[in-house]
Amino acid sequence: MTSATKAVYKFIMQDFLRMSSTSTEPLFSPLDFSLSFSSIVTVAAHQFIVPCPGVSFTPFHAGHVLGACMYLIDIAGLKVLYTGDYSREDDRHLVQAQVPSIRPDVLIVESTYGVQKHEALRGREQRFVDLVTAVVKRGGHVLLPSFALGRAQEILLILEEHWSKNPDLHSVPIYYVSSLAKKCMAVYQTNISSMNSKIQERWNRQDNPFIFK
Fold it and tell me: 161: how many CB neighbours lie within 10 A of its CB?
């Protein structure tokens, strides 16, 4: 896995162990986590790796969450592209999935949505901020349950941009309440080079995109 995934894995597993500490039969023990963490070998996107004779693989950005990769595996000339979740859309912070130039012989892919066609990303975002704005302007409060990794950061970036363009919302505070999300935010700030050009440009201007106003 990538170094970003390893860092996030540590926080997610620690959170899982904390949440499952009251269970009579937890799936993993602290020792299991410690042994698994010490066994991780990190790789980088586009790194060519030969684990044994006749087998090689190269990671490519998957565009799903920070650190996620798809793997082009070569087994004695047979090329297999293996990936979990991936995204071919540009979002607020990640690069889109990078398609290898080599056509694979076998494709193994996550397929939750199958051949479903989603609404365009910008349309979904506009509908989201319109709903949030409508609730706020009528004096309401918006509670957004969200995954601590990826989704939380994307939502905060979307809301920050919308708030900056609408002065009438500046007096309305936005809070994110999640110790896990805060820990993941630190990983984001140390992996700017893995993100898209928009985030890197902000970083180069000394504008940290993950310190929310």
Answer: 13
Assigned token pair, 46: 């586009």
pLDDT at residue 132, as a whole number? 96
What is the rounded CA–CA span in Å between residue 168 and residue 147?
A: 29
Cα–Cα distance between 159 and 29 in angstroms, integer?
A: 38
State the Cα torsion 14-142-124-208 to the nearest 10°. Answer: -60
> Which 3 state secondary structure label does DSSP give 91?
coil
Residue 9 amino acid letter: Y
Q: pTM for the whole thing?
A: 0.82
> What are the two backbone dihedrals, phi and then psi, of residue 202, each rounded to the nearest 5 degrees?
-60, -45
Kindly tell me if the per-residue pLDDT of 208 is higher than 90. no
Q: Cβ distance 172 to 88 under 8 Å?
A: no
Instruction: Looking at mean pLDDT, say which of 41-50, 92-101, 140-149 comes out highest.
Output: 41-50
Taking the C-alpha atoms of residue 170 and residue 180, their distance in angstroms, rounded to an integer, is: 27
